[in-house]
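so my prof wants the structure for this chain in the tokens format not the other one, which i didnt know existed until like an hour ago. anyway here's the sequence
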Amino acid sequence: MITSDAITWNAPNDPHPAREASQRSYSAVAKGDLAEWLTVYAEDAVLEDPVGPSMFDAEGKGHHGHEGISAFWDLAIAPIDTFEFEITDSFANPGSNTCANIGRIKTTFADGSYTYTDLIMVYVINDDGRVASMKAFWEPDRTMASFVPA
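here's what i got, hopefully its the right format
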């Protein structure tokens, strides 16, 4: 089990390049470090968070390349005061370039209000070990229903 102030890993943790990339992604987000986060992603990566049309991606086509991923950061990550990740399961078959993590993210706003997002995150890495695709499966309405005011 991995535990930090912002990441609790209660899932299998056998070494796997895609799993390790997901962990680097969570760490950078928790630290609020966009530059570090971008090093996890390939230059031509596609990020879908959540998959499909949403308040972060009206057309549901994903955020493409570092420019699109940076714009997503500004819209969805930068406004959050703190992120707390709890990963409850992780699937990464040896020899594959993919990892699927199941977990919950607590997002706390500056005023102390917060939400929980239950989700599945699928990471596909390229030959360099950088994320080529990340798809987060979650439902915005369920997250908003969990809102706890300050």
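also thought this was worth mentioning. The chain has a mean pLDDT of 96.
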